[in-house]
Structure prediction request, 689 residues.
Amino acid sequence: MFINFFYLLRNYGVPVSITEWMTLVEALAKGLAASSLMGFYHLARTVLVKSETHFDRYDLAFANYFDGIDTPIELTDKVLKWLEKALPPLHISPEERQQFKDWDLDELRRQLEERLRDQKGEHHGGGNWIGTGGTSRFGHSGYNPAGVRLGGQSVNKSAVKVAAERNFRGFRTDETLGVRQFEVALRKLRQLSSKVEGPKEELDIDETIKETGEKGGMLHLVWSRGRKNMVKVALIMDSGGSMMPYLRICSQLFTAMNRASHFKDLRFFFFHNCVYQHIYLDPSCQVRNSIRTEDLFHQLGSEYKVIFLGDASMAPSELLMVDGAIDWYYSNPEPGITWLQRIADRFSHSVWLNPIPAAYWERTYGSYTINLIRELFPMFELTVEGLEGAIKKLKVRK
Amino acid sequence: MLEARATFTGTSDYIASEDLQNSVNVSIALGRPLLIKGEPGTGKTMLARSIAEGMGMDLLIWNIKSTTKAKDGLYIYDTVQRLYDSQFGDHDVSDIRHYIRHGKMGEAFLSDKKVVLLIDEIDKADIEFPNDLLWELDVMSFDIPETGETVRANHRPAVIITSNAEKELPDAFLRRCVFHYISFPDAEMMKEIVRVHYPDLEQKLLEEAMKAFYWIRSIDGLQKKPSTSELLDWVQALTIGGISPAKISKELPFLGVLIKKDNDFGAVLQRLHSGQGMQRKSSGPGILRNW
Prediction:
């Protein structure tokens, strides 16, 4: 019956597999959901969702699917026991009815919550506590037109409401997150030297012992090839004024890159809006602290993986015209796009990370240049998910 | 320090939220491993101890290191010992079975009672590690090719796996687990936790320490936020040091117990002395949100 929920979850981007769904069915058959929607909410989340980054999507899907379902309210056994010993039903005159009219449901729920919290034992025939008879709003066999008949209901938060709170919003991977998340994503960028290449230079102790043991004590040395991460990375960052709004997120990526200790080599370069014949060694982008872009090609072998970080948004002239550079004292005999093309040709593994969300790439101020640059470099938005996509891309040749 | 106390005082010192308890029960009822994630210091490892004590089972801990291989948990064939023995000739080396040592998982399978098996920090090992355990966790048995034996679990152990999310776990592995994320405790729950560890703590001191603790956690850009275990240490330091509650938010004594990174240290002190820091924070209940 819930099969649509399964597909809804998948539509919302929660990667649920058949195996997990069958596990849930098994769990439901065992009665682990405790026959309440809240129980189902937790059970299904425990079984189906395997990462806190997907909790938020799960919540959205859950709220969507179960919205409007009047939650059967779970009552504690204790309260039900109080109600077992009943007074005879109470009859009430029309005048007495009058005073009970004006109550709204929210107020009532609040009160019941309080009662449930404060009431210590059973109670019959009063006007306040949960019990039978009497005129309290909570209980049964009594009279209160604005009351809650308690025979299986409570006002604990409904599962749909919990889901709607979206407590796990902060864990979404498509939200821009902190340094730590970037670090984890970057860790995937590794390319181990294969065990079939390179010299056999590490003594394989386990194998040596095993071989020697099997030879009955005759020493037999076994050598193997070690595995090292061979990845070399160059991060080329835009430090232009239009990057100011993204300073924080860029510096987070920068920190994460810096801290990532598993690269064989890591180099940083900077540019102002677009790369021309010079590429800068610090964010201030002064020619005196720069190298010629051509020299970059000599310094970095084609095996370097190049990550551009920039909004790719500029005046078309900056990208396409001779002398189009934004700095008035700087003249470029060749347009920026030519240089970008050269970099793209030189480094077969390169990507462009853009702090502008992908949804705006078609509409934002720089969409013209963004789209030109996208033709040269695979472009990803600067979120954890985007970075993961970029890293996948970096592992294969364009 | 968390760990040390647990062994002495039992589960009464471990506060598990209701959904955590549910997740544990679901995992045991379904016979699936329970994968626990959460910020460091939220008591992931403690949970297994608490389950073991609470349910009267023995606890086996398999600590994973970066060099751990899946096979280590099943059994080790001690060829070196066999080699020695063959040289001195005082043991019967013809029977390989004498040289098979069971790992933690093997022990858990062979135990004649149901046990709790904690596979701690599974993400420390190589990326492929969890995949190598899929079959064993699924069918709860493994073969020893050297002797041709098959080890089968007498009682399906309750398997608890913790991860700090340092590496992504493979999907095939995740599909077989049930998952729980321990979120960082809110102030109310945290008070309970501290109370459980230090029942005699002065109320005023606790209030002030909590205020300072959540204030520090709310500072943006800390490299490592202090966690539960650090708060517990700090509270103890404050008690032993005889610090008066009034001083706590003004001076943050023993800050080194809470903050482990140089940069963070600077950041916190700067905030504190800039005059805007704690004063503004301590004024209202919105302590977590203002920043």
